[in-house]
Amino acid sequence: MVALLLASTVARAEQYQSKKDREHAAKTTSTGKLPMVGTKPTRLTNLYNQWTNEWIAVAPGETVAPELANRFLRDHYTSSSTTMEPKLLPTVLAAAAHFHSDTAFIVSGFRHPKFNLILRKKGHQVARDSQHTHGNAVDFRIPRVTTQALHKWAKDQHMGGVGLYLDSGFVHMDTGPVRYWNGE
């Protein structure tokens, strides 16, 4: 009975659609460009830059354009950017997917050498020639995932340097030589 009512309601609604709307509906459902009504939407992974308060939503299998990645991971202090290592954001997205999270928080991407020097002078634990200053590193965290679990996953990737920052609650990953360390 409900199906019959629904079918008659749909038929009446189609009766009042313009020819152009009917043609558009036929094209989009046959080519698959738009999902059919009632289908589950694609799950997006949201990247959030904690310093700039910017978001990027990425669909599964989608890549972030290099220009967008460079701007998104820019130095928040000087607002300058550089060419970022292309492996970084896909690695963050892979971590989010591994832990079934729809969000990843970026703590740090590119760090301008001047800002890096300021942090060193203030006593922060940053390397003199940090991979961040070359666009080869990202610090991030995944909500509801322990820093230790994320650290273990990062080490298993064998991509480069992995730093564990328990007090700050994030993991550092870079594309330099494989090495591990603990920070604050």
Write a short abstract of this structure.
By secondary structure, the chain is an alpha/beta fold. The chain contains 6 helices and 7 strands; from the N terminus they run H-H-E-E-H-H-E-H-E-H-E-E-E.
Q: Topology of this protein?
A:
Elements: H1 2-15, H2 19-31, E1 45-49, E2 54-58, H3 66-72, H4 88-98, E3 103-108, H5 113-121, E4 137-141, H6 147-156, E5 161-165, E6 170-174, E7 179-183
Parallel strand pairs: 1-3, 5-7
Antiparallel strand pairs: 1-2, 3-4, 4-6, 5-6
Tell me the helix content.
25-40%
Number of strands: 7
Model regions low in confidence, pLDDT < 50 over at least 5 residues = 1-10
The gyration radius over C-alpha positions equals: 23 Å
Mean pLDDT, nearest integer?
86
> How many DSSP helices?
6
H-E order: HHEEHHEHEHEEE
Distance separating the two termini: 65 Å
> What composes the largest sheet?
7 strands, mixed
Report the portion of residues in β strands. Answer: 15-25%
Q: What would you call the structural class?
A: alpha/beta
What global shape is seen? elongated
Largest sheet: spatial strand order: 2-1-3-4-6-5-7
